[in-house]
């Protein structure tokens, strides 16, 4: 059984994901501009619809954490089992969101364990949960784990075990941009670019290799160094980066998932 608190955390997580999907222009990532084309319209509609399928699983993860009362091997195994069931449900609803589910699952559990903690503390607390191995996970290497081994990238597991440093950087970027007078859309784009500028995105490593990853990181840094998306120079650099990544077919999906985690934590004080 889930409580009202568990359901509220799940709703906030799904709202963070749909908010990330609505953000534009996202370099190389699906966004509302894609609705002009029939095929991409279907893809974007599917992503928005399947995001809602995360809610029951995320609420169950929060409930599991409250029952556990702390980070334990049993909790880690239960989160893994719930996550795999949720992946199946999301697949039936249209698919996608695996990276976001990984991040949000740990963050929702950490938030349930630390209901009075600040956003940065919740992100850091995930390292205690992620420190344990998921004994129920398949022994067959995933694409992400294989790429992590091949290139020495932290990957999703490394991010969680380090307490989601890129989620915390995104939170700082949100605060900085808002204080500087950026709109909410601009602040969120700056947070996304902050993640992109340093993340060893295994999806990019798979599709574009180390050269492609460095190219994307440099492009994201270029937008930020131009003043961010709230400036004319930064906005023009963002448009150029987006066109470049779309032409190349490179999509920084790992960065999008971590931005979603930051948006979830950012929304917690309003619950």
Task: Walk me through what this model shows.
Helix content is 73%, strand content 0%. α1 crosses α3, α6 (119-130) runs antiparallel to α9 (165-179) and α10 (184-198) packs across α13. 49% of the residues are buried. The two termini are 20 Å apart. It is globular. The mean pLDDT is 91. By secondary structure, the protein is mainly alpha-helical.
Keywords, separated by commas or semicolons:
globular; 13 helices; mainly alpha; 73% helix; 271 residues
Largest sheet: none
Mean pLDDT: 91
Order of helices and strands: HHHHHHHHHHHHH
Strand content is: under 5%
Distance between the termini: 20 Å
Q: What Rg, in angstroms, do the CA atoms define?
A: 18 Å
Q: Report the strand count.
A: 0
Low-pLDDT stretches are: none
Q: Helical region count?
A: 13
Shape: globular
> What is the helix fraction of residues, given as a range?
over 70%
- Class from secondary-structure proportions: mainly alpha
Describe the structure in brief.
The protein is mainly alpha-helical and 271 residues long. It is 73% helix and 0% strand. The radius of gyration is 18 Å and the shape is globular.
Write the layout of secondary structure elements.
Blueprint: H1 4-22, H2 38-52, H3 55-68, H4 73-93, H5 98-113, H6 119-130, H7 143-151, H8 155-161, H9 165-179, H10 184-198, H11 202-225, H12 232-248, H13 253-267
